[in-house]
Design brief:
The protein has 242 residues and is of the alpha+beta class. It has helices spanning 2-6, 30-34, 65-73, 96-124, 132-136, 169-174, 203-208, 229-237, and strands at 9-11, 16-18, 25-27, 42-46, 49-54, 57-62, 77-78, 91-92, 139-140, 146-149, 155-158, 177-181, 184-188, 194-198, 212-213, 225-226. It folds into two domains: 2-103, no CATH class; 132-237, no CATH class. Strands 1-6-5-4-7 form a five-stranded mixed sheet. It is elongated and about 65 Å long. The N and C termini lie far apart (56 Å). 25% of the residues are buried.
Length: 242
């Protein structure tokens, strides 16, 4: 438990939080605290945030499988309470950097678990690897998506086919699949990441490796321009598959 408490924030009376824009700072009210966990050895999960009571103190940390597993292995009982601090996108005043670092660790842990689950699924379904030279000539979409400007002039974000935080039934159906549109081929690789290739020439390699065709939207296939210069340079350098 020592490692978990060190990677948590202890809630104390009078603690202030930054509220999401456009609201300012406010103190966590006594009324809100009345709706948190009270009993030693209990915890609650809301909106990817865990609160738990240990040695009479209320702690909060971002949810990860490992964090919840630590609690259950130490005999904590899950309960449902109305309020978990920081689950409404609040940030603790005076501990902003620590909370941001904990959120960063959360994202890394979730992504690592997602990747391992995808690789196991790929092995079970005989979805193989592509040669490294082929992958290097594909654009790997960022986990959080990429901002683009559409031909009509508006700006939007285009996301990977599968979201690492929400591997739902749609994601299950798209795993190990590819789709083609207007000179671009998108595919969900065996690690769960979305790749885009220029041209149709990659399709025989995909099919040989066990990938099947599916019907889904192909990012960057309708004339969109990537706004981030670094990402646009990565896209521009890949060549069309013959």
């Amino acid at each position: 438990m020592k490692n978990l408490t060190q990677n948590s924030i202890r809630i104390v009376k009078g603690m202030k939080v930054h509220l999401p824009f456009p609201y300012g700072d406010e103190e966590i009210s006594a009324e809100d605290l009345d709706y948190t966990s009270k009993s030693n050895g209990t915890y609650c999960v809301k909106d990817s945030t865990i609160s738990y009571v240990f040695e009479g103190n209320l702690y909060v940390t971002p949810w990860t499988f490992q964090n919840e597993q630590t609690l259950t292995l130490n005999g904590f009982i899950k309960e449902d309470v109305p309020y978990v601090p920081f689950s409404r996108e609040e940030i603790p005043v005076g501990q902003e950097e620590k909370w941001k670092e904990l959120l960063k660790k959360q994202n890394e842990a979730i992504y690592e678990r997602f990747t391992q689950e995808c690789l196991k699924k790929a092995d079970l379904n005989c979805i193989g690897e592509l040669d490294e030279s082929i992958l290097k000539n594909c654009y790997e979409m960022p986990i959080g998506g990429v901002f683009v400007r559409a031909p009509q002039g508006y700006e939007t974000i285009q996301n990977p086919v599968i979201n690492v935080h929400y591997f739902d039934r749609i994601g299950e159906r798209m795993f190990g699949k590819y789709a083609y549109n207007s000179g671009k081929t998108a595919f969900v690789y065996r690690n769960g990441r979305t790749y885009i290739a220029k041209g149709r020439g990659i399709i025989p390699y995909l099919e040989k490796a066990g990938y099947d065709e599916a019907n889904f939207y192909v990012p960057l296939s309708c004339g969109e321009i990537i706004l981030d210069e670094t990402e646009r340079a990565l896209w521009d350098k890949i060549k069309k598959f013959a």
